[in-house]
Amino acid sequence: MRLSITLLISALALVGCSQTQTPTMTDVEFPRLKQLDSAAPVTQKVDYQQNYHGKTLSDPYHWLKDQGYPTVDDKNIIDYLEKENAYYQEFLAPNKALVDTIFEEFKGRTDEEETSVPYISNGYEYRWFFRPGEEYRTRSRKNLATGEEAIFLDETALAEDNDYFVIGDWEISPDNRYLAYSFDTAGDERYQVRIKDLQTGEYLDDVLNDVHGEIEYSADGSMLMYGLLEKDRWLSKNINLHRIGTEQASDTTIYHEKDDGFFIGFGKTSSEEFILIVSSQGELQETYVLPADFSGEPQQIVSRDDGFTQRIDHAHGEFYIMANDTHKNFRLVTVSDENPSQENWKTIIQGSDESYLLGLQTFKDFMVIKSRDLGLEKIHIRDYEGNSHEVSFPEALFTADLGVNLEFAQNFVRLGYESMITPSTVYDYDLESKELTTRKVKKIPSGYDKSQYETKRVMATARDGVKVPVSLVYKKGMKQDASQPMWLYGYGAYAATIEPGFSSGRLSALDRGFIYAIAHVRGGGMMGYNWYLDGKLKKRTNAFNDFVDVARYLVDEKYVASGNISISGRSAGGELMGAAVIQAPELWRSVNLGVPFVDVLNTMLDASLPLTPPEWKEWGNPIESAEDYALIESYSPYDNIDKREYPPMFVSGGINDPRVTYWEPAKWTARMRELKTDDNLTVMRINMGAGHFSNSGRYGRLKDYAEEYAFMFLAHGISE
Prior knowledge:
The protein starts with a helix and ends in a 5-residue tail after the last helix. The radius of gyration is 26 Å and the shape is globular. The chain is an alpha+beta fold. The longest helix has 18 residues, at about 75-90. Helix 3 (about 95-110) crosses helix 13 (about 700-715) and helix 7 packs across helix 8. It has an eight-stranded mixed beta sheet, with helices on both faces. Strands 7-8-9-10-11-12-13 form a seven-stranded antiparallel beta sheet, with no helix packed on it. The chain is built from 13 helices and 37 strands. Among the domains are: about 1-30, no CATH class; about 30-45 and about 75-110 and about 565-600 and about 635-720, Rossmann fold (3-Layer(aba) Sandwich); about 450-555, Alpha/Beta hydrolase fold, catalytic domain (Rossmann fold), CATH 3.40.50.1820.
């Protein structure tokens, strides 16, 4: 049954509180979700010490990292993970009815036969759709000349007999005959590529292994470009060219990255005349261009030594470049593709403190620019003579993005739009009439009444005086008297912004009385590029402090009572959760740490991990710098668990995860069980057949979410 805070206060009054002594909401001690009757798993400790900068690092759970990684077959490790999973199943068993109820709510809001808005590319109209009950999409295309439609990629059929299946990328050859696609069946993001003849339905003999994911055809369709992963390492150092009909062993390397600290990738310009090859590390990017026929050698446009970030597209013999070389919020420049050196760059939009330029796409007659102005998103249409106007949207607080726009010469722009109360919507924006035409609104079969919900933005004051944006959504009628539970979400890293978007699953919480809030903390990009810089490296703790200060602000403003806030975050957001629970455990009713990056110090000290060197620009290098070591040691959540009480926790991970390795959640859970002094419930779910993104099918993913929601609801005394 749902726990009524009003009834709880009344009960306290009946057992001895006089009218003048009735407790305020901030005085209430909320009941906690307790450990199960059976004993929680406890694992062994093995002495492990290393010395750095005159300090000794002790880690008794270091052994949970399989020394044969990425192969994980150590029996003691597997036994421990299976014990944790068994304990988790013990938690689920008596709560199956609640999980099933939530899952059915999720399914009821899922369009069994959802289909995309069709889009046109190279003489064909493309769409995807779900068949009833299927976990994966089916993709088809219609020949605009003949009207014939055919399925070209049946993900459900390909996923058969696989517990995990993800398409990384797919491309149709320029002559429309061949399909190339990459896929992953383990969750380790190590893809294989196959090529299918769409005329005969037969597969070619070509098989590419250890592919990073993305692929691109040459202009004549005779070659494929791909990134090759290092053996036993999740790191791509070579961009290779594969000539179709040959063995992978004979592929040639078009670009080699010598520095393990840089990620590499590539993509085609909107004009389809060039391939951009990008090598990046944090704020540093180095960009090369190559003709789309893959001829010649890549030509460098920007060097990493220049020390800034770029976003590049192309049209009419010009490169259009967003660069933060002169202003951190980026300027827009143009330069001839025949001589693109920086001394020839011409600024067409100056950098601005008020407007953060986020992205662009070029078309034949215009370009589209996305910005965030003082924290609010804007879409601008600009022609090549410099005339510009802003697209008008129906709400003040929303998120909008460019949709699928593959035709360079089209006279409209497809846009994606949503808000915290408006389901995902696809618009076509007509350049002549300047009007939006609705092409699709995400269907919620069980029903949804937008008028029953409200959203707003508030600004919380952090401890250093900085104003932190907070997006809120709740059921209409919410009383600002601290009587309702809250779910607070955060991320705060890599300049990534958690947009104030819509979630049909979230309705299950809102309809049970929750206020949902997103804390747009520093380290993200909500308020501009400096917002990101102010939450990384030596300023990393700003992100953690912002999150805690947002919670305290919401308590002070009586949106919620202290101790009645459940929090959640994934990956770097899981690090944020760990830091927040260490700093202020008394604020939280429950904590969901999803694939959490909580073992920051050990991970940044392990240069053998392929993702560690590129991350030093984000977190610091504790191997080389004693100062970085001391800072990371001071906040690394795993290293700061102390003997004290902590709130109930839900921890998750994937054994094949190459981004946040499985031992981070495992070590966190083991150490938390050892040191916490309370009997509050801690459970860990390790997916033994997936990676960073857990279940791949849409219903499998919904089941995972239903379990996480159930944990949070139970932590608030809600059992139905």
